[in-house]
Amino acid sequence: MLDLTAAHIVGIFITLVGITLVGIYSGRNIKSSADFAVGGRRAGSLIVAGTIIGTLVGGASTIGTAQLAFVYGFSAWWFNLGAGIGCLILALFFAKPLYNTNKHTVPQMLAEEFGPGAGPISSLFASLGIFLSVVAQVLSAVALLTAMLNISPLTAAIVSVILMAAYVVFGGVWGTGLVGIAKLLLIYLSMLVGGVIAFSGGGGLAGYKAVFPAFPYFSLFGRGFWIDFAAGFSLVIGVLSTQTYIQAVISGRSLKEAKAGTLISAAVIPPIGVAGTFIGLYMRIHFPDINPALAFPYFVLKTLNPWFGGIVLAALLIATVGGGAGLALGISTIFTNDIYSRYINKEADDASKLKFTRFMIVFVLALTLVFIAGNIKSLILNWNFMSMGLRGAGIFIPLCAALFFKGRINKNFAIFSMVIGPLSMLLGKNLLPQNIDPLFLGIAMNFITILIGFMWESIKERVSEKWDTADSHSKP
């Protein structure tokens, strides 16, 4: 057990109370399901950034990064680096067309372009991908709580999902956004201080290089080029395909505010990974025999001032809980808009939608608890990379087609691509060599299907033009 001192407990208590008050205040802004889902399109750039960061900077980017760095070194940076690159591309190329759709969810955008059949299919695979990320966040919280409280993993999992439900169910995107801003300040302070301590405690860059070989520990491709490239690529396309991050863009009070918030996220997220990587390496030097999942919590309890350590532990807990809560909100929004309102209760009023959204958050988190019962010792980042890849394999290219090639892709091929991409990825998981990520198979099948759909429509247009020309010449 990693014993908490009274100073740790006081620091944790003060931090959690402060964040709770912010969450309660944020809930006062919720007056409709639109406010709950996209903030009534009243969010400024900081709220947009807070929502994105509040979800991306969770257990994976802190506890999970330190865990993977403990084993492989700088390969662990890919989660944060890929997320930052994804946010940059989102701001520069996707924010404008997404914002101008006036839709709340990705399935709505796809259904508008490719017909109603696209909605349920994309909802299914998008939700499955997001769900895997919720699993990763709960696993991160389990690692943290077991280290802090010496409770069983199952008990820690139950506590985690209860905290996630309470975190977002009363605040929606306002809760994740406002709390995300407060959490950002805490996480950055925690990571900067922790990163500096770890960097200097290991003797600086020269000290680390003296202990660890350049490969794999100082290579971004320490686990193999295709594995780590796929990890970064999965984050990029995952960010560009995920309801939560797109929802944050749409929530902006203007396109300018939405872009600014996304650019802030792109700049803020990658440095967190560098700090987390050095913390993992530091723990590898000084505590080589510990469970890698405990590297970050152990670092906080063993090296930081207890008062500040309590704040850091609270910030880590908030990061983990907030990440899972934000993703659960994304799933609930998809099901409310694309399943409940369309097929279950077509006459649902705003109050009914809001009630169902909150119910779905609780349901998703309860299902997560059941799911992780047999996966309690899984590696955290593996779930996130799989999650992001699954979302991208089914949604990324069809979404690009819907935004940038309107009316130029055959609808049937587009819908089929949303199925064949994720299924190919899941199949490749069992058939491909371990050094080749199945994400590439999923993306390739998705792209080929969309390309065939594009060619099909082009041929149809040419044939139609020829028939029209022939008809015009045949008329007297």
Automatic annotation (TrEMBL):
InterPro entries annotated for this entry?
A: Na/Glc_symporter_sf, Na/solute_symporter, Sodium:Solute_Symporter
Q: What GO molecular function terms would the record report?
A: transmembrane transporter activity
- Transmembrane segments annotated in the record for this chain: 6-25, 46-70, 76-95, 124-148, 154-174, 186-208, 220-242, 263-287, 307-335, 356-376, 388-405, 412-432, 438-456
| Top-level taxon | Bacteria
Provide the family line: Belongs to the sodium:solute symporter (SSF) (TC 2.A.21) family.
User: Which keywords belong to this entry?
Assistant: Membrane, Transmembrane, Transmembrane helix, Transport
Keyword field contains Transmembrane: yes
Query: Span of the secretion signal?
Result: none
Q: Does the keyword Cell division apply?
A: no
**Protein name in the entry:** Sodium:solute symporter family protein
What membrane topology does the UniProt entry give?
Multi-pass membrane protein
State the CDD domains in the record.
SLC5sbd
The opening ranks of the lineage are: Bacteria, Bacillati, Bacillota, Clostridia, Thermosediminibacterales
